[in-house]
Records
---
Amino acid sequence: MSDGHALTFEALGLLARGLAGVDVEVLPLTKLPARAPVASPDAAPPPARAVLAPKRLLLPEGGDARLRPAMVAHAVAHLRHSVPARPARALKPMGIAVVSAIEDARVEHLLCRDFPGVRGWFVEALAPVPNASDLGFAALIARMDRLLMLPAWQDDNHWVNKAHRLFDETAATAGLEDYDAFRAIASILANDLGQMRVRFDPQHYAVPAPWRDDNSYLWDFGEAETPPDDAIALQQSGARPPPPSDASSDDGGPPPEGGAELELGRYSYPEWDRKQERLRPDWCTVIEKLPAWQGLSPMREQPAASNERLTPLALPRARHLDRTHRLRRQWEGDDVDLNAAIEVLVDRRLRLRPDPRLFMRPGKAPRATSVLVLLDLSESVNDAGQGGQTRSLLDIEKQAALLLAASSNSNARQGADRLAIHGFSSNTRDEVYYYRLLEFGKPLEAPSRAMIGAVRGRYSTRMGAALRHAAAHLRAEPAGQRAILLVTDGAPSDIDVHDPQYLIEDARMAVAEAREAGVRTACIAVDGAADAYVRRIFGWRNYCIADDARSLPVRLARMSARLAAAN
């Protein structure tokens, strides 16, 4: 190392000391502590990323020397404003990366507030603008970094603009010093990326801003000997549900062995555009499938679901007036019972007291009913329940559906009630998955129980397309009361829609279309905040809210009986 190069690091050390107010040693990255293992000659060179310790900053020797003042300034920002070694075990890898990016921006804003001149170093070192078509994790973080550093910059990505808005609002309301407030918005942004199903590869991810360190200063990965990068890679992003131990690919697709989903058909449906106030024809594609998790192997792995003895709920049968079934000798009615009238005349001739019950009226006969229970199978139903519950909403949905099917079977033996159980999830408008778990007129036997017991939630909730497809199934049912009963845990949403009212209005229009076709639609929402959107979609009388998911089986039985009995 030349003297000039040594002076450069010495000067950087003086810069760090002046900004931080404490002694900070700045060394080249190749000068590792003696206790560190020496890399083999065949090992890959260390990454060109600064490494920060409480009183030491290691800078890469290669690369652009103009980045070093920004590297020093960023490290000092952490030393002044970040709490080191926060526990990372509770976070998933994507969450760690997003929290780190927000923390980087927070401390840089604080440093720029105290030393306005350093902003120019950060602006000059900004990474190039990513391609607009690149929606990968690193590209989105780079676009967020640029927008947070240059507020006048324009970006057309919804997530990036949301990050900018939340950051500014939090800085204005809570202040830049409030780490917990910024940690909260980072959690929101990470959850959004999960819902958008943005892929995150912790083994190959590098912080896009070239002046920032590797963030090892911020986190404590526990006492395991696994390096931090490998510790992050052991977990998976929250964008998809955890796969079964023996199957399911990394991208959330079907299991590789014997798990190819059987596609039953594709159907196109319109979707309501609330801004243009018109239906977009053939806008959504509904794909009917038998899910891969319903194969013979998963069925054998679900003995509890298929062999569990279920006690049917007390499900009242719907009845209605039937003019073909006449009740004779009534006290009042809409017609005269001729046989009773003749007997009255005979009694008078015989000087007997006549029977005054001279009328006939229609009787009540069992109503033919077809109720389709439509289960929300989006990713969120896999979450554990509130209040210390260990079971997920999906588990409770399964139990409720099985109980309702068992109850309906006992009524169906008398030839009146027909029940189907279907489910849906969506992955943009091009992939609305629709699963027929129990068909109309089919008994609840072991295969059907196993099919319902093995189903799993994933993706999003494009409700309107699923309701239209369910209504199409009901049009083929016999004349009588036909109804859809939707069970959901949240408002309709999908990753290609950013207007929160768009899919609500589309679902409302789908309910109106079903009503015109003679299909009544109702909803049970397991969401304490659901009142506004379910009332908008289903109307005042056609929904109920289950604050406690454990009440879902009883509520499902009551609502299905109410639908069957409605005029």
---
Amino acid sequence: MTSQVSSPAEQADEASEALVGGQRASRSDRAGGGEKEIRRLDRVIIRFAGDSGDGMQLTGDRFTSETASFGNDLSTLPNFPAEIRAPAGTLPGVSSFQLHFADHDILTPGDAPNVLVAMNPAALKANIGDVPRGAEIIVNTDEFTKRPMAKVGYATSPLEDGSLEAYNVHPVPLTTLTIEALKEFGLSRKEAERSKNMFALGLLSWMYHRPTEGTEAFLRAKFAKKPQIAEANVAAFRAGWNFGETTEDFAVSYEVAPASQAFPAGTYRNISGNLALSYGLIAASRQADLPLYLGSYPITPASDILHELSRHKNFGVRTFQAEDEIAGIGAALGAAFGGSLAVTTTSGPGVALKSETIGLAVSLELPLVVIDIQRGGPSTGLPTKTEQADLLQAMYGRNGEAPVPIVAPRTPADCFDAALDAARIALTYRTPVFLLSDGYLANGSEPWKIPEIDELPDLRVRFATGPNHELADGTEVFWPYKRDPHTLARPWALPGTPGLEHRIGGIEKQDGSGNISYDPANHDLMVRTRQAKIDGIEVPDLQVDDPDRARTLVLGWGSTYGPITAAVRRLRTAGQPIAQAHLRNLNPFPQNLGEVLKRYDKVIVPEMNLGQLAALVRARYLVDAHSYNQVNGMPFKAEQLATALKEAIDA
């Protein structure tokens, strides 16, 4: 969903008019009685939670889309089980979707929900520990019967035993109300029950004055082949809205104004990390004037990239779902040899299987983008949870000296730019490139300013067209490993081009000619040359945010950007001077990184692993970088990180 954004002043006027108009409509539609109170808030954190079959991800996604179209800044955190269908009503089967939206710039999905929608006892028990005192809890009372409560260890009903006295609890028979609202459609009870998530969505949409037209259009499009089901879902959605408007239990609704000052003028849409990556790859192929080829094997949480790219054949995109990880990258490397912008996508376990072919790509010196959407490990680990623990695997996880550049996006929207940067490096330097995203970025979403075409980099490359070397006897020949003196990249020769025939394969090549060579001195030269090529890649200098000349630097990479920045803001508001820098390029590091690190007495590196970047920094720059680590499958919370940073500053 896109929205046009004008100047900040115009936005403020438009937002004011929209709010007043929406407020009047809400009040004028109020049946009988007095008007309900409307409170203005600057931000809200909502968590929808239920069984994995209750449609919580769809509910959260629809609320997010309407919030984006309204103009709020937002950040989301989907959280769901690894099982396709975990046992209904159990704690392992709980699925949740958290959304943080505000009238100002925000960076994280929020530490704790202001509102929890719990569709059953399991959802309540799994999430109540994150809910602060005084928060609102909307509970589907129809599910709080003896058997569902017993499944999660409730001996008595938490709705009746006083355990929820610290919260503002709204008991709502969501199932009963949904079935009653859908009587006219002639659906079975089971079919009608499936729409209770839309009733909950309608209720929350009323509470926070969210637009409704987009959701109704979405439902009719989604169920276009089943118009009765479509209209039933629309009816349930409207019934939830009307329930909030008429019931006495919800005496207050809330307004969160658009973030009119948070964004520069432009056209925006809500975007997830995997979708942004997909669009970035398509944009890169168009800017390079090359066909895009994806060789991939489905794996959580990377599969969405394969799904999305398969929809864009009109842009010259070809997707190949291989029988396994090795076949996927093998096909991609073959496509690179054939002149395509070649990509393979995976997660940690798949990287392990692809490592030999990545080494082959290093030896062949062909452009290849390897996208690793990191997840909890080792082995199968936590497929639907997030982690940053593949950095050392990307850096060193191959036999021999096989250096590979590494790029890491910092937000869901930044995945678009990171994909362009990875493609630039791969095409310019003729090398495989790692792009390290993770589950938090992949599934999370935020507003993204759609760039203009003329803002995108020119990625066009020149293929070899003829001989490039003269032998001692004057014969002109093609040498596949004769390098560009600036980039050390070898020429890219399309197969079938007359006169450019050359050997390929994994055995060491002779410098220049590319002939098979077992000469020790030549091997030493080729190893050092490949390393020098990676070391010489042009990357921007590291930018440091240090308005107060602090003595402590927080250094991050990847998806820790949001929590780190939010924590740094909290500390500065409290009067604590602290500097922040965030790495996108992890191999090679920015040239000024060593100089930056030496300016500070303390360097703290928060990571969702056991200290991988910190280890690299210590080894490379002999700086005593302090790790702050978390590996519980969830992103850092800003408050938790702010506390840890404060303790480090005071130590």
---
Amino acid sequence: MAAPAAPVWSVDPRTGKQREQVAVEATAEEVDRVVRAAHAARGALADRAVRAAFLRSAADLLDEAGDHVIEAADAETALGPGRLTGELARTTYQLRAFADVVDEGAFLDIVIDHSHPSPATTPPTSASRAPLSAGPVPRPDLRRYKVPLGVVAVYSASNFPLAFSVPGGDTASALAAGCPVVVKAHPDHPGTSELCAALLRMAAGRHGLPEGVVGLVHGFEAGVELVRHPLIAAAGFTGSIRGGRALFDAAAARPVPIPFHGELGSLNPVVVTEAAAQERAEEIGTGLAGSMTLGAGQFCTKPGLVLAPAGAAGDRVVKALTKAVSDTAEGVLLDARMRDAFVAGVRARTALTGVESPVTPGETGENAVAAGFLTVPAARLADGGEHGLLLEECFGPVTVVARYEDEAEITAVLGRLPGNLTATVHLGEGEAGEGDGLAARLLAELTPLAGRVLVNGWPTGVAVAPAQHHGGPYPATTSTSTSVGGTAIERWLRPVTFQATPEALLPPELRDTNPLGLPRRVNGHQAP
């Protein structure tokens, strides 16, 4: 007899106590049922106008239920109504923004090349290929656009119960692409996940779409079963390196491997030049404190390593940072496991030779933690060895300030870093205008390390905009794609070309009459 399904409890992170049972963990059979329902719903999402209307209705329903959604999310995450109000606004904005992307149609990337006669008298053979040239070549009629991959598995993030979870960017972009989704709920906010999934399904029903367009499962084993299911066509993940890499490997090991777009971990280095420290040390120290403690340090873009000068100007940065961090209230992390990992991580780092703790981070009570930061000579990081631990992300309100003596030490430390979501440089006023000085050299070193490079700013806060890129070299992400902004839709599409296909058999998107009025490129030129 099969063991009974394990209950899924909503837990209050402020007390560590169970609140209510909201579901049970999905069995393999249940995962199969949900995935098959999503697979059967693919055709219902084919109409772009319906998809756009569905996304807007989802945003409207989330807004209408805003008080309830925020209350539920706060009870399970302790992120606070203020933070969650902003996150809900971002979430609904994303849904509406993807509806606009669907309406515009440029994401289909339509390219039409009409047949072109060849000036050559001898057709190419298998032994003699036609050379590539810039001029006319033998060419059949070719028409390309992008089609949905199929059912997408979405793995929710712990630290964003809305914007990177059930109604978040992965779900919104996949639905916009025409892909049904099955979301693996995060155990830190199962009640919020159920509520948001119900609202999305209600929105689907308003437009005649089946509930199967948005599936939801709970449980660790369910998450593994999901990525292995033969009808899952792609996956999006936001979480830890360990968990993400295990799922990434499982996706690659399938009989038919699938794209796995994972966001795994990021240190987000910051370089403060000597000139910047001299000009605005107090501003930099205070800004760093705000960025590294935002959301109790539980942002994927938290600056976890800061290279600051070793002299008097750098001392002023550290002094300002000390004051600002000391004035920061204690916070509650998302769950006990993360709190334990944070405390253990800080303990291991402070035990390293040469590491000091001007403000000691750590546990302040049964459930809360205090923010803090560590300092270390940059030479220790450049030398490698046990200090490599300081170059790994520590989730929570802590950062490492590495004090460098010269530019060579900056280069040595940056040369040891893995891939990141962001990289930041703070420059002096005169440096910012130099095209071939220190600023240019630092940007050249930071650019290969990250998907977003900032100058004189802080990386926390990711604007949802067409030009945004939220991704980076491994382990920041497992692909070159972004999970934020309009181009996130590209993850769930694949190109198909129709060659010498009669007009009547072509999809409407590729017909000469352009009945859908879509933007496209014809014979090398943008066409109306």
